[in-house]
Amino acid sequence: MSAFLDETGTLITVDHSNPMPVFSKLDPASASTQAALSGTLVKCWINCPAVAAKFSSVQIFNPVGSGVNFLIVGLAGYNSSTSIKWYQHLTSNKLSTAGGYQSVMKTGTAALPIEMYYQNLDSKTATNALGVTVSATTPAGGSLQLTGENICITEGYGLHYEADAANIGITMTAHIIASSNS
């Protein structure tokens, strides 16, 4: 026989006639694997072509009213040439040009309300949505890859990346889990 205190402080006795409770599945609020199994899993791609004297930027945006949160569980970025730094922004401002596409990675689920944008900027963005000075997320190199870092995009916000060198095309891919935010 064993005993434990439940969340109210009540002593619970455990034995063969009163076994300890066992959860049969993970909680989606704290387990990305369970969220993927019970939610929607997609992969998206967005490209920004190189333009002379402009800084390329790409964005994944979660529109107001989507009813879901996006959890980015994998992200990769590729440069068209040279070695650059990538700058990350979480912002409520949309970039100017819609583009990109998504592929549903789980059968039986619908496409997400993901909006994807790109823009060739005249200058790099100095601060993020919180007013914090932006710094590079990767050392100079040929690509960007985030693993083990989950990024949550709530309604009305977007995640965008900018190249730190002008006249460089960039492409971003991301694996996204979406689940209800209610």
**What is the count of helical runs?**
1
Helix content: under 10%
**How would a textbook summarize the main sheet?**
6 strands, antiparallel
Strand content: 35-45%
Give a nutshell description of this structure.
The protein is mostly beta strands. 4% of the residues lie in helices and 45% in strands. The longest helix has 7 residues, at 32-38.
Structural account:
The chain is mainly beta. It is built from 1 helix and 13 strands; from the N terminus they run ββαβββββββββββ. The strands form 3 sheets. Strands 3, 5, 8, 10, 11 and 13 form a 6-stranded antiparallel beta sheet that branches. A 5-stranded antiparallel beta sheet has the order 6-12-4-9-7, with no helix packed on it. A two-stranded antiparallel sheet has the order 1-2. The longest helix is centred in the N-terminal third of the chain and has 7 residues, at 32-38. The radius of gyration is 21 Å and the shape is elongated. 29% of the residues are buried. The model has no long low-confidence stretch (mean pLDDT 81).
What's the structural blueprint in terms of helices and strands?
Layout: E1 2-5, E2 11-14, H1 32-38, E3 40-48, E4 55-62, E5 68-79, E6 86-91, E7 97-98, E8 101-104, E9 115-121, E10 143-146, E11 151-153, E12 157-163, E13 170-180
